[in-house]
Design a protein that fits this description.
- A hairpin with a 4-residue loop joins strand 1 and strand 2.
- Helix 2 packs across helix 3.
- The longest helix has 13 residues.
- The chain contains 7 helices and 2 strands; from the N terminus they run H-H-H-E-E-H-H-H-H.
- Strands 1-2 form a two-stranded antiparallel sheet.
- By secondary structure, it is mainly alpha-helical.
Length: 111
């Protein structure tokens, strides 16, 4: 997890150990959840890019104190409910087609 966060934020691994540790505890090391959680923290400006410092910055205590969804499903469900109603309806219909759907069907659903 530390190497993934180090690569993503372009910082030395030693500089993001505390952040990595907090994210590992919250995600149990699930890579998908780590990525989703990182995106969520950036969107909520808990992790921000500092032009002055020319790097990503965060407060370790604030990250550790964040209430985070217990699992990936909850986080993804939360993201999906924020989608526009038309997109959500298209996803519901598309899910009835199983694990694969043609792009033509998706185009028809989006009209």
């Amino acid at each position: 997890v530390n190497m993934m966060i180090s690569d993503t934020l372009a910082v030395f691994p030693r500089n993001c150990r505390a952040l990595s540790s907090a994210l590992f505890q919250k995600t149990r090391g699930n890579p998908l959840f780590v990525i989703e959680l990182l995106e969520s923290l950036v969107k909520r400006k808990i992790i921000q890019y500092s032009l002055r410092k020319r790097r990503w910055v965060w407060d370790d205590a604030e990250v550790s104190g964040e209430e985070i969804a217990e699992n990936v499903l909850h986080l993804l469900t939360t993201k999906m409910t924020a989608l526009p109603p038309g997109t959500l309806e298209a996803l519901k219909v598309a899910s009835c087609f199983g694990s694969q759907i043609s792009h033509l069907t998706v185009e028809l659903l989006c009209k």
